[in-house]
Amino acid sequence: MPSFEWKGRDRAGRPQGGVLVADSKDAVLAVLRRQQIVPITVKEKGKEIALPKLRGGVDEKTLAIFTRQFSVMIDAGLPLVQCLQILGEQQDHKTFQRIILQVREDVESGSSLANAMKKHPGAFDDLFVNMVAAGEAGGILDTILQRLATYIEKNARLKAQVKSAMIYPIAVLSIAGLVVYIILWKVIPVFGSLFVSLGAELPLPTRVVVAMSKFVGRFWWLIVGIVVGGVYALKRYYATEQGRLVIDRLLLKSPILGQVLRKIAVARFCRTLGTLLSAGVPVLEALDITARTSGNAVIELAILEVRKQVEEGKNMADPLKATNQFPPMVVQMIGVGEVTGAMDTMLAKIAEFYEEEVDLAVAGMMKLIEPVMILFLGIVVGGIVIAMYMPMFSMISKIG
Question: 265-296: per-residue pLDDT in tens?
Fold first, then answer.
């Protein structure tokens, strides 16, 4: 049997290490769990255990329902193959149905559930696979699946809050730009022709608006090209590593939106890491997965730096503090969790607190954005209207 080198911490937070002879890595994790040791790294002698890569896949709502139903069936004592057969046959998502039935065939052929799911990264990412493997090794698959379902549901909610925080101001600004464009393109030329026919002397604000109207009418194709090209260029730039880092850093530093996005990132970090640690996944692998699912390049780099420090034997709290990306309260509570040996419980409490904070922050941001947008629209549209009425006021005063 192969030998596995392991490093970890006991419940008092003291570093531990050694070599275990076992059939597989999962068996080593089960032994360490029984000894109440939190694993940091487990690797076969002379060979590092490779992690599967993250990929997109089945929508989170479908995956959460499948996971919740799966946990209930396992808890009821149904055989694993029968559970997969029932879930596959009742699945409406045809692609996911084929995946579930393929997993069932692999399990029936002797494969573990985790290894069978690992073949389908489009449906089951490495977080899902690692937790299922830990559940199988510890004999608590139903509990792990319940935790997974809760995690997926809460993560989907966080993503929805990110979208609502980002889409609302963008939509309002887009509509405002469209309204101003139509006014300049269709309305202003009518007034301009009227003033020319009357021989009115145009003040500076009116001349500026008329000039803008002529430019829009003559070079509308250039404006559309600039907008489309700008959006495309921004997407291409964000697709690069450097571009993603720059844009994510700017978003985190933005006055109103930045606080909301940071709270969402902290909640996701704590929820993901806590879920993985509670399943017995080694700390280094848990930090790897958490970094890749953080959703922000700045937070991802910070977590990877923390992972590097933990791999060198340091605790987690000090490197987290050094990144300057996590609130002091989070760092202190994680430090307490390390000392007491209840890191997963502490992370779950932090995640719940920040998820409530996100709800309040998004609601507050919406209330603040609405009057700001109304004021902005009033100034822009009102300014155009006043500029076009100024020659009329001048003409009326002369007639009088």
Answer: 888 888 888 888 887 778 888 888 888 878 78
Q: CA quadruple 376, 377, 379, 384: dihedral positive or negative?
A: positive
**Angle at the Cα of 268 from the Cα atoms of 263 and 270, rounded to 5 degrees:** 95
Quote the tokens at residue 50. Answer: 């490779």
Per-residue pLDDT tens over the stretch 85-135: 888 888 888 888 889 988 888 888 888 888 888 888 888 887 788 778 877
Spatial separation of the C-alpha atoms in residues 361 and 355, rounded to whole Å: 10
The answer to whether 268 and 162 are in contact (CB under 8 A) is no
Residue with tokens 């409490």: 349
358-393 tens-digit pLDDT: 888 877 877 777 787 788 878 888 888 888 888 777
Q: Exposed, middle or buried by CB within 10 Å (0-12, 13-18, 19+), for 94?
A: exposed
Helix ranges, the chain (H): 25-34, 60-75, 80-89, 94-108, 113-118, 126-138, 141-182, 188-198, 204-218, 220-239, 241-253, 257-278, 283-292, 297-311, 317-323, 328-340, 343-399
pTM of the model: 0.65
Q: What is the C-alpha to C-alpha distance for residues 365 and 348, in angstroms, rounded to an integer?
A: 25
Left if phi > 0, otherwise alpha if psi is -120 to 50, otherwise beta: which for 5? beta
How would residue 233 be classed by pLDDT, with cut points 50, 70 and 90? Answer: very high
Cβ atoms of 51 and 293 closer than 8 Å: no
Distance CA 296, CA 282 (A): 23
**Exposure string over 320-331, b if 16+ CB within 10 A, otherwise e:** bbebebbeeebb
Please report which confidence band the pLDDT of residue 167 belongs to, taking 50, 70 and 90 as the band edges. Answer: confident
Cβ–Cβ < 8 Å for 275, 341: no
CA dist., res. 400 & res. 390, Å (int): 15
Tokens found for residue 41: 């790294």
